[in-house]
Amino acid sequence: MKEILTRSFAGLVYILLLLAAFLNEHALIILFFIFGLIALAEFKKLIEYKSFLPFILFSILYFVFGYWQLVLNSATGLSEATQILQVITIFVQLLLIKDLFTKKNIPLFISNRFTLTTFYISSSFVFLTLIANYPNGYNPEILLGSFILVWTNDTFAFLVGKNFGKQKLFEKISPKKTVEGFLGGLFFACVASYFIANFTDTLNFTNWLILSIIISVFGTLGDLIESKFKRQANVKDSGFIMPGHGGLLDRLDSIIFAAPFIYLFLRVIQYVS
C-alpha cells in the first residue's frame, strides 16, 4: 500500500509540474532543460560515459535551437540548421531501431556514446520544445496532446496486456510487453486523438489520428530501446529520482524518442497546407 501511495504521489507531482510549465514558455524551457540534464545524466550512467562534454553540447543545442525559436520566436538563420539536426537525429534513431532488432547488444564504443548522448537524448529535447512552437509561436496544446497520447498508450497497453496478453512482443528485452497490449494501447490512443482534436483548436482529427499512430509506434520502440540499454547495464531502472517509477528517463523514453518524428510530421503538414 505504501509503495502504491509513493508511486501515485511521485506521478502526480510529475504531471502537475508538466501542466504548470505548459502555462508559460519560460517555465517550459526551464523545466525541460532540467529534465534534459537529469535524463542525460541517467543515460550517461547507463552507458558508462563519464565525459562532461554531453552536458556542454546539450546546453548549446538546447538554447541555440530550442530557446532561440521558442522564447525569442525567431528562426533566423536556424531553419536550415534545424532541418539538418532533424535528419541526423532521425538517422541515429533509425540505426537504434535496427540495432534493437538485429544486435544482441547496442555497440557502445566511444564515438557511438558521443553520438547517442547528442542525437538520441539531447536533440530529442530540442524537438520537444519545438513542438510547442508549432506553427509559428508558443502553442503548448500539441505538445500537451502528445503527452496525453503517450500516457493513454502506456496505460492501456499495460491494462490490455495484463488482462488479455498472450503473445510476447519482445520477450528478450521486455518480457511483460505483449502484442495484445501494444494493439490495445494503439487503439485507445487513436480513440483519445478524436477527443483531443475536438477539445483543442489545433489540428484536425485526421492529423491527430496519424500523430497517435506515430506516438504509439515510435513511443513503444523508444521504450524497448531504453529497456535494451538497461539490460546491457544490468539495472532495472535508469535512476531513482521518481520513487516507485525509477528514473526520469524511464518516464520520458517514449516521448523523447517520438519527438523528432512528431516534429517531422508537423513540418510536413505545414509544408503541404
Key phrases:
9 helices, mainly alpha, 273 residues, globular
Structure description:
This protein is mainly alpha-helical and 273 residues long. It is 75% helix and 3% strand. It has helices at residues 2-21, 25-46, 53-70, 79-102, 110-131, 141-164, 179-199, 205-233, 248-272; strands at 168-170, 174-178. The model has no long low-confidence stretch (mean pLDDT 90).
Strand order of the largest sheet: 1-2
Number of strands: 2
CA gyration radius, whole angstroms: 18 Å
Largest sheet data: 2 strands, antiparallel
Helical residue percent?
over 70%
Q: In angstroms, what separates the terminal alpha carbons?
A: 52 Å
User: What class, by secondary structure content?
Assistant: mainly alpha
Mean pLDDT: 90
Sum up the overall morphology in one term: globular
Q: Uncertain segments of ≥5 residues (pLDDT<50)?
A: none
Element-by-element helix/strand order = HHHHHHEEHHH
Portion in strands: under 5%
Question: Concise description?
Answer:
The chain is an all-alpha fold and 273 residues long. The chain has nine helices and two strands; from the N terminus they run ααααααββααα.
Itemize the secondary structure elements and their pairings:
Layout: H1 2-21, H2 25-46, H3 53-70, H4 79-102, H5 110-131, H6 141-164, E1 168-170, E2 174-178, H7 179-199, H8 205-233, H9 248-272
Antiparallel strand pairs: 1-2
